[in-house]
Predict the structure.
Amino acid sequence: MRFTPSPRPVALFLGLCVSLVAAAASSDLTLRYTRPAAEWVEALPVGNGRLGAMVFGGIHQERLQLNEDTLWAGGPYDPANPEALAALPEIRRLIAAGDHEAAQKLTQQKFMAKPMSQMPYQTVGDLMFTFSGGEPAATYHRELNLDTAVATTRLTIGNGPWGTVRVSEVFASPVDNVIVVRVTATAPNRPDQGRLTFTLGASSHQQATSKTDGEDTLLLDGRNGASSGIAGALKFQARVKVITEGGSLRADGQQLHVSGARSALVLIAAATSFKKYDDVSGDPDALNRATIAAAAGKSYDQLLAAHTAEHQRLFRRVSLDLGRTPAADLPTDERVRRFATGDDPALATLFFQYGRYLLISSSRPGTQPANLQGIWNDSLTPPWGSKYTININTEMNYWPAEITNLAELTEPLFGMIRDLSETGAKMAKAHYNAGGWVAHHNTDLWRATGPIDGAMWGMWPTGGAWLCYHLWEHYQFSGDRAFLERAYPLMKGSAQFFLEALVPEGNYLVTSPSNSPENAHRPGVSIVAGPAMDNQILRDLFMACIKSSEILGVDADFRAKLIATRAKLPPDKIGAQGQLQEWMQDWDAAAPEQHHRHTSHLYALYPSDQIDILKNPDFAAAARRSLVLRGDDATGWAIGWRINLWARLHEGERAMDILRLLLRPERTYPNLFDAHPPFQIDGNFGGTAGIAEMLLQSHGGELHFLPALPKAWPTGSVKGLRARGGFEIKELAWQDGKLTKAEILSTLGGNIRLRHAGKVATRPTKAGETFVFTP
Ligand code: FUC
């Protein structure tokens, strides 16, 4: 093994090669289709974190289904149940006495939030372009370029040399805060013919009216609806302005009519009156007017250039090459059909980069975090409310953020944790008479924190604590002390709740009531005390607080309490089947759903590093046994989790087999959205994180290169991944399954252990130093 400082001329030369390769690879970062979308899951998503559109690429009618990330049902509400606190001692007594059925029944009757459901995320509505003429398209191509973040439809109406070529380009600009559509028509051989004629109208299933405003603007004004008895409290508006080149433009009160234009630029703004979970005093009309006025002052080229530059600032930080075969030239839906049995490593690359694209498009500083569907939802009653399910799904959304170099996109998640620390403090008082804050297994725009849906699923007090792990991870990757100062009070508040709410069980302190997310230990009963996952999450939370308080030099007494309490959390246990026990008692073999989708007790293996195959091989073997017993196939997100788990066990072939389960039509729609089914975006993010985890791991104080590289990717490279301890992997390259080079930037300095293929070396680094590791 050799270490060398990075030689500059070589770096420059390599940099040049990299840009050339990047340009060549750009077309491989494209989803391509030969037909318009017939279903919503064939349409292509664009988004700027706040505004989203699904682009169908229709021939005679082009539909843009629109979203705005603060348009949810209901209004500010407090879900506390006034009967809950009085019932808590009896619920706990029943659990301690082993009568879990009765405990669950009482929880259901007295302890659940009011209402029992949270508010769903909503669609804004549709914008419909209806083009004149009814001829079929002679040529058709539709694509989403992940590198430019532009969805393009290119088609020809009319045959041969006399045809008119119509091109629509759609993007959602994070710079100008609008969705931009440009449609152009050209007839290369008959300049007089290449003209656009279409009507533009808006519709919505919301309580909304659509009308024109002046000759060039279309408005959709509405109010959100009630849900579960919580009245709607939001106004919303979409404002659409059309700017034509040539031809005419007029309004008829309902629709806009473009006639004989060479091109049309359509600017779409949307907003609601939401300002904060307890403040709905915003003025969407004023916001949209200002947004449209500013955007209309710019040319299409200016809007596009600013959009693309901002997107690429984030997107281009990571490039991945897993090899390329002719399959990469096929339409994307065809590639998904063939992936499991064919040889198409570039589809794994596309899926990986699509996950990064989706995070960039659904979660940016100042927006809401990515929900179960990111920001893309066409329904008023989406599956699971398209909310934030925080017993796995929201966390999974952010698994790729740090390692794939999109760390600032966690800001909305951290903003949500801050909100939950406020609403969750009320919940902690109301339901547990405890300090600190608590959030159960779901939350929504209004930051509701109570147990919902039913005791079987919702009685889980550890959701907020799991979210806090992301705060600590952000610090692990960045070493950003100013961030830690802001994050520490949030983690401390979560820990404070558990210091007060844990109950004794034998020599231990445990959560009660709780569950091992959504898994029953006997038919229909999930309620328990101290499931393994809770103990693992709390070990991490307490350790994060202990270390933070040391780093920040604060709270010595609190730290001492945490150290003492942490020592009383039940340790993980290995059960009779050689498995890692999901519960304190060895109930696993008798649990009704042996192939349950959740692998909650394996949290310790991933995302946590409490079980590390190199440090605790016995527990890793037990986790492996649990994973085998669970089986490989599951819902989309659950497959995503399994990829990460097998990667942590350093089993690349198994991880690859499971990626094949994810990248098949049953779990990946034609537009590469993950199928739970139905669509749920967590599987995209879990899959992206899993591919990264196969190539690079950085827990336990070392950088581990290619820990789970499968045979299917013998030669390749990845650039730009980040690692804990402040490292950026400038380049990792391998050939025939062997690492050929790793170039690493140390941003913080310090010693680092490097591992590849069983060999380890330690190296001191200086902050800002780039070095090359050659095995
Ligand atoms: C959890 C999972 C389900 C689904 C839902 C949104 O409850 O158990 O599979 O993903 O979240």
